[in-house]
Each structure stands twice: as structure tokens, then as C-alpha cells.
Write a structure and sequence with these properties.
The complex is a heterodimer of chains A (214) and B (220). Chain A is mainly alpha-helical and 214 residues long. Chain A contains nine helices and one strand. Chain B folds into three domains: 35 residues; 70 residues, no CATH class; 79 residues, Cytochrome Bc1 Complex, Chain D, domain 2, CATH 1.10.760.
């Protein structure tokens, strides 16, 4: 008796698995449709490499820069793990945009799939949020000053600007509190929202099926 | 029955197999990039160095460039109003685009306005300056060794001293110049700077020149 049979006897997995795996895919689905899947694969890759980076990364101005250098130069496979996280962060933006352009081109956002388009735009904004918050973490010159400019932009919003600025920086200055905030948002808050919106995105595509391009 | 076979394929295993192949290929691409490139690293953050000119990551460049067109009280248009309108237009797209047609030839308004926005974003990105590829595979630490080995320091200082003529100080050269310019300048200084006393940097491989350029770019 296989492990699967043993589990199936107790948990009755067959109907659920069958529902997940047995649904048909139309043959007109071609390579243009793979970019959403690649984006999801990249997100998984970012989660895995991110977990490894967190083993050594220290989110404090005194140690962040050094810990990134340590990961890159000393830790076994550290250069590869950091390099993969860096390159995937760039490539994921490319694949998200191609995926969105494909959906637009095929008119797949139209009724009855409006809500899945909205979820998709939220996932795009979350991706940009990952990019923006991840930028500060190496605590180098580019990180510090680009974040100074970025948080200033939040500060220019009418009425709530100064509140947003203080919320983002954890005070008026950009320092240790800011770094911990960005780290927290990057590794806890955004991943949580990402998983929720991804679940919604996949649930909707499964319920509604792939839109015919004509 | 036969028509159904032609129109559909099962998710498992057919479609999942295709997805797995694609995933393996992109994994290989990412691992090769990680193995054969150097993640660009700048000096540790220095909050007192206000001369540093930050550039955002390439996918924020269009926004960065758009901000340059709004000054003073109009600045809020670029920093807040324009991005907000852009995001709202994106989110609400299926609610204001009520044309039920899906084929592109029947959606002239949607396709042409999206093209205008897309071209605008691309043009703004390139106006903000292309992201240089000269130093993409270069090693600034090796460039630093070349800097010493070629006795660059016998003429150029790295102190931040003000220089009006003669060999310029190089402490912040990376924030003043673009990598392509530095690279071309090494090959033939007098072609870019009239009456330059600097001799062409010779006896180096192309890789060495790029490493030296990467070292220059790390001086911000």
C-alpha cells in the first residue's frame, strides 16, 4: 500500500486532488500564457532565497551592510543565493508586466473577470512594494538615498503627507527604525498580502476558466 | 468525442509538464545570472553625504523622470496626482471599458490609448538614462587593484579636493559621470576632453578596463 493510499484512506484526498488536477486546459493556450505561471514561480523562488538570506542578514544600520557583504563573500553559496534574489527581483517585474499586457491584449479583464483583474493589479502593486522596501535593506548609499527620495514623495501627499512620512520612516529621520520597518514590511506584511491575493487570483481563474481570446 | 480531444488537454500531466519545463528553464537562467554577474554594491550608507545623486531601480525610472517636469507647488501633481490617476485607471479598467469585444481589431480606443501610455512610460524610462551595461559583469574590487597597479594615484587624488584644472579628484567621480563615458575615456582621453594630459590606459584587457570602470562607478 502506497503512502498516498494510506493517506487517502484516512483523509479522502481523491475528490479534492481530482478537482485540482483533472480540469481540462484548452489547446489554444500557447506560450504567451506562461508569464503568470513564471511570475508565481519567481515569487516562490524569492520566498525560498529570502528565507536563506534571513539566516545571516541583520536589519540594523550597524550590521546590515556588513551582513550583506558577509553573505556575498563568505557564506557558502551566499553569492548565488543573493544573486538569485537580486536577479529574480528584476525579472519578476518584467514577467508581471508581460502577463498584464497579455491579459490586456486578449481582453481577458472584461466581464465576468473584472475582480480577477483588480486582484492582479493589487498583486502588481505588491510586487512594486517588494521592490521598493527591498531596496533599502543592503544599507548602501543607493539604498539610503533612494529611500530618502521615495519617502519624501510620500511626504508630499496633500493633508496626510507628513503623517505618511513619519509612518514610513518611524520618525522624521531615516535611520534604524526605518530599516526595521522596511524589513518588517518586506518579509512579513507584504508576503502575507501576497499569499492572500495570490490565493484569490488562483481561485478565480480556476472557477472562471481561462478567457477565450476572441 | 474526437472534437473534444482536439480542443482540450488535461491539466495533469500534460499542462503541468509544460509548466515544469518552463520553470526549470527560468531557474537555470536565474542561477546562471547569479553565478556569472556581480550584484552592484556601493559604499555603506552615509547620511552626511548630501552630494550623492540617487537613482532608483530601473522599473521606477519613468516615475523618477516624470517628477523632473514638476517644480515648486506643481510638484504634488507629479508625486501624488499622476501616480494616483495612473493606478486608478489601471484598477478600474474593466469597469469603464464596457466594450465587450475581445479581439484587438475591434478595440481601437482601448488599444491606442494603452499604446500611448506604454510608449510614454518607455520614453520616460529612456530619457532618465539607460541603465548602463558596461559594468554589468565587472568586479570593482579587482578594478581597485588595477587603479593601484597602473599608478593612477600618482596624478589623481581621492580626497575630495577641489580641482580646477589638471587631473581631477576622483572621490565622487561615480556620481558625476556615466560608466560608458568613463570606459570610452580610458581608451582615448583626449578624444573626450580637449587638451587632456592623461595618456590612454593601455596594456589592459577589455575585462580589466570594465573592472576599472566599475571601481570608478563605486566612488560616489
Amino acid at each position: 500500500m502506497s503512502v498516498y493510499d494510506w493517506l487517502d484512506k484516512r483523509l479522502d484526498l481523491r475528490p479534492g486532488l481530482a478537482k485540482m488536477l483533472d480540469h481540462p486546459v484548452p489547446t489554444w493556450v500557447n506560450w504567451l500564457y506562461c508569464f503568470g505561471g513564471i511570475t508565481f514561480f519567481f515569487f516562490v523562488l524569492q520566498a525560498i532565497t529570502g528565507i536563506f538570506l534571513m539566516l545571516y542578514y541583520v536589519p540594523s544600520p550597524d550590521h546590515a551592510y556588513e551582513s550583506v557583504q558577509y553573505i556575498t563573500n563568505t557564506v557558502h553559496f551566499g553569492k548565488i543565493i543573493r544573486g538569485m534574489h537580486h536577479w529574480t527581483a528584476t525579472l519578476i517585474v518584467v514577467t508581471v508586466v508581460i502577463h498584464m499586457l497579455r491579459v490586456f491584449w486578449h481582453g481577458a479583464y472584461k466581464a465576468p473577470r473584472e475582480l480577477n483583474w483588480v486582484a492582479g493589479v493589487c498583486l502588481f502593486l505588491l510586487t512594486m512594494g517588494f521592490g521598493f522596501t527591498g531596496y533599502l535593506l543592503p544599507w548602501d548609499q543607493k539604498a539610503y538615498w533612494a529611500t530618502a527620495v521615495g519617502t519624501n514623495i510620500a511626504g508630499s501627499v496633500p493633508v496626510v503627507g507628513s503623517f505618511l512620512l513619519k509612518l514610513a520612516r518611524g520618525g522624521t529621520d531615516l535611520g534604524a527604525v526605518t530599516l526595521v520597518r522596511f524589513f518588517d514590511v518586506h518579509v512579513a506584511l507584504l508576503p502575507l498580502f501576497m499569499v492572500i491575493f495570490l490565493a484569490g487570483h488562483f481561485f478565480m481563474i480556476r472557477r472562471q476558466g481561462i478567457s477565450r481570446p476572441y | 468525442m474526437s472534437t473534444k480531444v482536439r480542443k482540450e488537454k488535461p491539466f495533469y500531466p500534460d499542462h503541468l509538464f509544460t509548466e515544469a519545463v518552463v520553470a526549470l528553464v527560468v531557474l537555470a537562467v536565474v542561477m546562471l545570472l547569479a553565478a556569472f554577474t556581480v550584484v552592484p554594491t556601493e559604499p555603506i550608507a552615509n547620511p552626511t553625504d548630501t552630494s550623492y545623486i540617487p537613482r532608483p531601480e530601473w522599473y521606477f525610472l519613468f516615475l523618477f523622470q516624470a517628477l523632473k517636469y514638476f517644480h515648486g507647488p506643481a510638484e504634488v501633481l507629479g508625486t501624488f496626482l499622476l501616480p494616483t490617476v495612473f493606478i486608478l485607471l489601471l484598477i478600474l479598467l474593466p469597469f469603464y471599458d464596457r466594450n465587450p469585444a475581445k479581439r484587438w481589431s475591434k478595440r481601437p480606443v482601448a488599444l491606442s490609448s494603452a499604446s500611448v501610455i506604454l510608449i510614454g512610460v518607455i520614453v520616460l524610462t529612456f530619457l532618465a538614462g539607460p541603465v548602463s551595461t558596461v559594468t554589468l559583469f565587472a568586479n570593482p574590487a579587482h578594478g581597485k587593484q588595477i587603479y593601484a597597479a597602473k599608478y593612477c594615484d600618482s596624478c589623481h587624488s581621492l580626497t575630495g579636493a577641489a580641482t580646477t584644472d589638471g587631473p581631477p579628484d576622483l572621490l565622487h567621480v561615480g556620481s558625476r559621470l556615466e560608466p560608458q563615458y568613463i570606459y570610452d575615456h580610458f581608451k582615448n582621453p583626449s578624444a573626450l576632453v580637449k587638451n587632456s594630459e592623461m595618456p590612454p590606459v593601455t596594456g589592459l584587457s577589455d575585462k580589466d578596463l570594465k573592472d576599472l570602470t566599475a571601481y570608478m562607478m563605486s566612488l560616489k
